[in-house]
Amino acid sequence: SLNKMNFITRLSALCLRKSKLQHRHQSNRRPAVPLGSRLLTDPSKVFEHNMWDHMQWSQEEEESAKKKAAENSLVKVQWEDQDKYEREAKILPEKKRQELRTEERSSEHRRINSTNSFSDKNEMFEEGEKYWTKNYGAGSTAVQGYIYNKKQAKTLTDDPQGKNCGEEPGKLESFPGGDATYRILEVGCGAGNSVFPILKVLCNTPGTFLYCCDFASGAVELVKSHSSYNSAWCSAFVHDVCDDTLPYPFPDEILDVILLVFVLSTIHPDRMQGVVKRLAKLLKPGGMLLFRDYGRYDTAQLRFKKGHCLSENFYVRGDGTRVYFFTKDEVWNMFNLAGLTEVQNLVDRRLQVNRKKKVKMLRVWIQGKFQKPLLPVYNPEETTKRH
Questions:
Q1: In this predicted structure, what is the pLDDT of residue 183?
Q2: pTM of the predicted model, to two decimals?
Q3: What ranges does the record list as Basic and acidic residues composition bias (predicted)?
Q4: What pairing do the DSSP bridges indicate for beta strands 314-316 and 322-324?
Q5: Which of 48, 57, 87, 294, CA to CA, is 20 to 30 A from 201?
Q6: Alpha helices, DSSP H only, in 72-114?
Q7: How would DSSP label each residue in 53-67?
Q8: Residue 312: its pLDDT value, please?
Q9: What burial class does residue 32 get, using C-beta atoms within 10 Å of its C-beta: 0-12 exposed, 13-18 middle, 19+ buried?
Q10: CB under 8 Å to 201, separation ≥6 — which residues?
């Protein structure tokens, strides 16, 4: 079970690092310092690097951000247009299918198939693990406690096919990954920016299986046609997480980990709670959901012009895609209502710098780990005492 703990720590680091690949400077060079340790102590050196970690906002900066958000929210998108954006949410990714095919795939091939790619990913995992352990203590306490207690570890050892986990022996092979002992789901996998680094790890971790889904069939096709895709370790499928009537290609309560990274913010606020609740049902007791998304007053929110606001802190971009900006309390409330317990929930504030244009941008992300409680042990004496 120690190998599984190490694996999930690395997976957690990947969840954190995925945003770095999307939002940090586009460079193939390895970071000069471990993630999270680049602190701006001398303001005169602000343009020496592209990103600074653990930024503290001044009261003036905080008030300025609130004012900008209030101003760009004054003019709301008309109701008929809001309805159009909701209907077209599923269509937009299909319109960008060719763009995905040319840009994402070529980028992924360069990243995955380059000579140093595998070692780069391993270093990426190590940096993330050190960062979380040093700054938040998540690399030890959370990992040791959140999935495999003694009873579960014994179940995996004595019953590697998972027969005691509510799976009927005759149905083990009836769904992809049915014979796995450790299962992961990435929601909103896109063209596979996280899928293939994870699969690199799975190849060396027996008994593990990765599910990945996206509502854009074009993106799923790209994942399945990639040279690194292997149905022995992975199942990619089209799925709309907002549709509660759609079944998943596997039973409830079998997942050990769910990755929900920059996905929830694209969903209408009225539907978010239902999505989180449904995902929570997929986790086995002790399973973990890893979350990362946009935080309130991120630069991306403040840059919106009037007329792009759909509702409070919910906007539509020029290409028709939508984005919500969360607070830590909102995130906690959603996952708590879904029956998950907070293991980590933090605001990640960074300073992003465009050194060429001499522009500074305050970035804000919310990062969390939420665990499904272990099944309570039935105690007749306790029941008698209560009654």
A1: 96
A2: 0.71
A3: 96-111
A4: antiparallel
A5: 294
A6: 79-88, 92-95, 97-99, 105-113
A7: SSPPPPHHHHHHHHH
A8: 93
A9: exposed
A10: 7, 10, 11, 125
